Amino acid sequence: MTTFVDRVVLHVTAGDGGHGVASIRREKFKPLGGPDGGNGGRGGSVVLVVDPQSTTLLDYHRSPHRSAPNGRPGAGDERDGADGEDLVLPVPEGTVVTTTDGEVLADLVGPGTSFTVARGGRGGLGNKALASPRRKAPGFALLGEPGERLDVVLELKSLADVALIGFPSAGKSSLVSVLSAARPKIADYPFTTLVPNLGVVTAGSERFTVADVPGLIPGASQGKGLGLEFLRHVERCSVLVHVVDCATLEPGRDPMTDLEVIEKELAAYVPDATLGGQPLSERTRIVALNKADVPEARELAEMVRPDLEARGLEVFVVSAVAHTGLRELTFALARHVARARAEIAVVEPPRVVLRPRAVDDSGFVVRREPTPDGDVFRVIGERPTRWIRQTDFSNDEAVGYLADRLSRLGVEEELYAAGAVAGDTVLIGPEDDAVVFDWQPTLSSGAELLAGPRGTDVRLDEGHRPTRGDKRREFHERKDAQTAARDELASERRAGHWATAGDDDDE
Predict the structure, then answer these.
(1) Strand 104-108 to strand 376-381: parallel, antiparallel, or no bridges (unpaired)?
(2) d(CA 24, CA 124)
């Protein structure tokens, strides 16, 4: 049964943003009070956080698909939808986040360090937020944006100052148990250690960590045995200790041969340079000739010691069982760790450089692409793509609003400049999910097709409802007009322009 996992492929999906809503306020004696649609909520993001209590990536090996909740849609009465909660995933310290192509996204070191691996989609605006003096009653709302979806690789690389390396059953776990308070599993058969064991060692005023890297065999750097799976745990170590078994009875095994085999594997393994990794063959290396409590092993250790020192290696004859030579080894390790820490350059915080967008940068480009069916024109840009995702194409007014936005952005002028004519195919959006249009430049704004400006309602026009003063003035004007008409008729009658009934009888 798998109990330790240090590399997984994680499939993460951030939450989608909630849709905005198109709503009109309706109250007693006020049947049409204006737009009151709320905005949609933001989708939840997927966040990786370093948790000191987490030691393995086993949970993500068993459940590699993780999704954050979506944002809630808006509602009437100017009620915004709730944001989706972020999905927080705890990871061990030393986890490196990369893409499936090997690009490093984050190196998570330090408790509480977080990295947003997938961002949630923004919520769509309701018609209340879309209202303006020129667009008093929008009959549409914007859709929420989809959350990010991607696959990332999580690799756990132990944070240790010293790495104990060597063949299986060389006594590495035994050394960790006597140098520190760690209690790893110890047995006399190969591949006893299946996980890197870490222990804290104190030597005088120095404190450092020691990692027991599982046994290496010839070809480990190419994936044989368990070596390739755990060589990544050596990448962060500044000091490497060759633990050599001087009491082995296996044919073809001797301290010099074992050392050369391990050195070859170290030289063949290339650490990640993007993390500041130094080639393993260039790091400080110490040789610990182990199992000196066996008389024959001690004689062999004293025999090969001059040859190893002639190579420039610092050699210690030790015994994890008899605790022989451990003090000297511990203080030597502390000395090398302190030197390595002092040589580490002080990391200066990166300078924040502001690069404002140029005044002539439209934020998009139009590219003409040949196809078997003729040339098509692709609009590439963050804002046009986002507007496409926010548009409800079942709503004609929303489509018209999109056309207005694209026209104001200058898309129509760029299409003209690229040689597009009416009826040409225009694609906006990602290549695998683009929206296709048959371009009609005369419909770029579409306002001439409406009875009035888009987003208006004659019932909301403040000019058609007379005030009390207007009504009083209109009443007096009507009465004055009636009085003037009667006076005019009376003057005409007196002047003889109108005949009376008595005059007809006389005739």
Answers:
(1) unpaired
(2) 17
Distance, in Å, from the CA atom of 220 to the CA atom of 191, rounded to the nearest integer, reads 13
Residue 214, marked binder: yes
Residue 274 is classified by DSSP as G
- Residue 84 is labelled as binding a ligand: no
Q: Is 192 flagged in the annotation as binding?
A: yes
Chain segment 6-17, per-residue pLDDT in tens? 789 999 999 999
Q: Is the Cα torsion angle 433, 437, 443, 447 positive or negative in sign?
A: negative
Query: DSSP character for 441?
Result: G
Domains in the chain with CATH codes: 1-156 (2.70.210.12), 162-343 (3.40.50.300), 364-460 (3.30.300.350)
- What whole-number distance in Å separates Cα of residue 322 and Cα of residue 293? 6
Name which of 198, 274, 208 is nearest 230 in CA terms.
198
Contacts of 456 (CB under 8 A, 6+ apart): 134, 135, 136, 137
- Is 197 known as a binding-site position? no
Say what the pLDDT of residue 445 is: 42
What pLDDT is attached to residue 1? 39
How many residues does this entry show for the chain?
Answer: 507
Tell me if 170 is assigned to a ligand binding site.
Answer: yes
Residue 151 has pLDDT above 90, yes or no: yes
The answer to whether 9 is annotated as binding is no
Cα–Cα distance, 391 to 402 (Å, whole number): 7
Segment 189-194 long-range contacts (CB within 8 Å, at least 24 positions apart): 190/215, 191/215, 191/225, 191/226, 192/168, 194/3, 194/4, 194/226
Answer yes or no: is 193 a known binding residue.
Answer: yes
Contact between residue 222 and residue 202 where contact means Cβ atoms under 8 Å apart: no
Question: Among positive and negative, which fits the CA dihedral 407, 411, 416, 417?
Answer: positive
Q: Which residue has the tokens 């990544």?
A: 232
Annotated binding residue 188: no
270 is in an annotated binding site: no
Q: How far is CA 474 from CA 362, 423, 483, in A?
A: 53, 54, 14
Name residues whose C-beta falls within 8 Å of residue 306's C-beta, 6 or more positions apart in sequence: none
Distance CA 137, CA 458 (A): 10
* pLDDT tens-place string over residues 266-279: 777 766 655 455 66
